Amino acid sequence: MRQRLETLFDALLPVIATLAALAVGAVMLLFLKVNPLEAYAALLKGAFGSFNSFAETLVKATPLLLVALGICISFRGDVINIGGEGQMIVGAILATWIGLTFTDAPGWLIITLALLAGFLGGAVWGGIPGALKAYFNVNEILSTVMMNAIAVQLMNFLLRGPMIDPSQAEVASKIPQTARLLDAFQLERLAPTRLHMGALIAVVLAVLVYILLWRTTLGYRIRAVGQNPHASRYAGIKVPRYVVTALLLSGAFAGLAGAIQVYGVNYRMITDGSASGFTGSAGFNGIVAALFGQLHPLWSIPASVLFGALLVGANSMQRMVQVPSALITVLNGLVVIFVVSSEIWRRRRQRRRLVVGEEEAPPKPDKSQVQTGEAQK
Amino acid sequence: MSQETILIGLAGVLASASPLIFAVIGETLSERAGVINLSMNGTILLAAMGGFAVAYTTDNIVLGFLGGMLIGALVALVVAFASITLQQSQVAVGFVLALTCRDLSYFLGNPYMGLPGPRLQALPIPVLSDIPVIGQLFFRHDVITYISFIAIFLAWLWIFRTRPGLMLQGIGEKPAAAYIRGANVNVMRYVYTIIGGALIGLAGPAFSLATRAGWMGTISGLDGFGWIALSITIFGGWNPVRGALGAYLFAFLQWLGLVLQPVLTQVPSQVLQVAPFPLMILTLLLVNIGNAEWVERTLAAMPESARKIFSKILRAMRTSPPAALGVPFERD
Questions:
Q1: 3-state secondary structure A259-324
Q2: Is the ipTM, as predicted for this complex, more than 0.85?
Q3: pLDDT tens string B19-73
Q4: A354 pLDDT tier (thresholds 50, 70, 90)
Q5: In degrees to the nearest 10, what's the CA dihedral of A319, A321, A325, A329?
Q6: Best mutation target, A28, A90, A146, A292, to test chain B (most B CBs within 10 A)
Q7: CB contact, 8 Å: A350 with chain B?
Q8: Which of A343, A377, A347, A282 is nearest to A70 (CA)?
Q9: Can you say how many angstroms the Cα of residue A342 is from the centroid of all Cα atoms in its chain?
Q10: What residues form DSSP beta bridges with A177?
């Protein structure tokens, strides 16, 4: 009985952690002299209040899920990909270029090609840091961050120069954006809302990534390399090859997210000069969603919906109770910190259970465990 | 360009590198002890905003700098608690903090956007500043730049020439051995992470109260410096002197980009803005290439004389991280 209760508790940990983060957020709201209940009600209403707002939540969740899928692959391979933003941008650039260049082709062909181009563009942008890590030992955290910066400037250059919307090139304001895609090239809408095919594609891919990671040799090897590169090498796995593959795939999914953002939501590429101007920070928030989903592709689906809801709800919270939406990004971070730190608690208890089970001896008193327990309260 | 402008430009390079130097030294201390403080990018922004806010409201610039250091130390405390006590993935916690602190700085800093705040004034050192060339380069800065010069030297002295510094190297390289030698590994890790965090925090006001005075929110242009400081730390091989050289090199390249912009008009401005990043990747590649297996194999296949020269070059460039970096320490 007790064991079952504990299992239930473990499963609920992310929820509890989310509530704890919301509680901290409530304190911050009180400091801003805003009624937290009112603010959270506005948030919920904005995210789930109507069919339309729920669709909007799913629209926001789509790029998060796609990036998160890539993150599941790379983090499982112990490769830290922080370059989602840049990979999204490069994927979107290539996809947009296809749509704006081949205007005579049929719609289905262009969409397929464009999504493939996005996939490839992201793969290249992720593969470069992957190769640098695998063959030159360059730290991938740093190289992916730098690749982000390069991608942003590439986008700024292209959207202000060669790829600028011809109508913007003539006027003085010169908003950095490309021309609009033809109607035939836009991803189909699923309902009379902004929800588009991309959401469906992302969910299908989540299942495929699950199969890839747990039902194929490639996935098995990526995970083996992630857990113990030395043992993997002795087992005959070519470690560098799987490091590159992990980052390449991770980048590819982010690139696809960028392409789908263009073909499903904006129908053009537009920026304000920073990375988030195009991506809406999905490249970063996708990491957060993946961590929240415990690096599992299927769990990443609800996690992405949650963070999508937070993003959409934040906007309505800003409108209705005048709370800066930046508070939500802070809240995002808090949620992950709480989830990540609750994880250790579970692992420790698991270990204790093992010790008790095997040796029939009481576990050693562990100082840090007491501290962990206190931290939870 | 006259000699005068070049000298002023180079002196500016030394000054503008000072925030990076504090951040690099802070990160070096933290990582030498075995803890990666990946939150640096957010910490610097939050400390820049906080330091400016404190200095603006109290009208006391010293309090502003102390406020920035306090913010850095507090963020580092979270990193330390999560990674040492909770034994969490340092990368996950640090990265989330980097994002959270960045957004927090934009969110909390809103009321201070674009306000005319206090700024550290230059303080030429009498006599020394009159020396031609050298005086112009080194002795006409503000206090924080002088402190950055001294900090490089002190940090190097502490790590490589003192007994506690030796212990610091020990807890980052082989914590079990350091433990046997009587070091309380986890307490020391806390101490160094927090001190390192305070130094990283100092980089914030060094921007917002000195080199790039004021707080401009998202257009402050400070976003990204933390990541650069992180790669400079690696480039510097966890050595403050080499790290400082990296910071100066980066500041020099940025200055060069500005100077060259009017000359190379056909080159799009984005190319010069972005140039430091591929260059940093290239330097990371050069310092790491000596560790790669296939390079060793290639070297072994070379004729004797060529091998000697190449391996010497590679060894001079190579750096490798503290062995226990990012690995939690448990007594048993």
A1: HHHHHHHHCCCECCCCHHHHHCCHHHHHHHHHHHCCCCCCCHHHHHHHHHHHHHHHHHHHHHHCCC
A2: no
A3: 999 999 999 999 999 999 989 999 999 999 999 999 999 999 999 999 999 999 9
A4: low
A5: -140
A6: A146
A7: no
A8: A282
A9: 21
A10: A270
Best residue of A85, A132, A145 to probe chain B, by most B CBs closer than 10 Å: A145
Report B:134-173 residues touching A (Cβ under 8 A).
Answer: none
Q: Which of A145, A147, A340 sits opposite B93 (nearest CB)?
A: A340
At residue B324, the 3 state secondary structure works out as: coil
Rounded distance between C-alpha atoms, residue B100 and residue B72, angstroms: 14
**How far, rounded to the nearest angstrom, does the alpha carbon of residue B157 sit from its chain's CA centroid?**
17
| Total-model pTM | 0.81
What does the block give as tokens for B73?
């130390």
Query: What is the maximum span of chain B, computed from C-alpha positions, in angstroms?
Result: 68
Per-residue tokens: B31: 């990582």
- Neighboring chain B residues of A288 at a CB cutoff of 8 Å: 96, 99
Measured CA to CA, the distance from residue A34 to residue B185 in angstroms comes to 44
CB neighbour list of residue A136: distance below 8 Å, 6 or more residues apart: B285, B288, B289, B292
The pLDDT mean for chain B works out to 87
Q: Which CATH entry fits the domain spanning A53-322: 1.10.3470, 1.10.260, 1.10.150, 3.30.70?
A: 1.10.3470
Domain ranges of chain A: 1-34+324-349+361-377, 53-322
**Residue with token string 């809240």:** A331
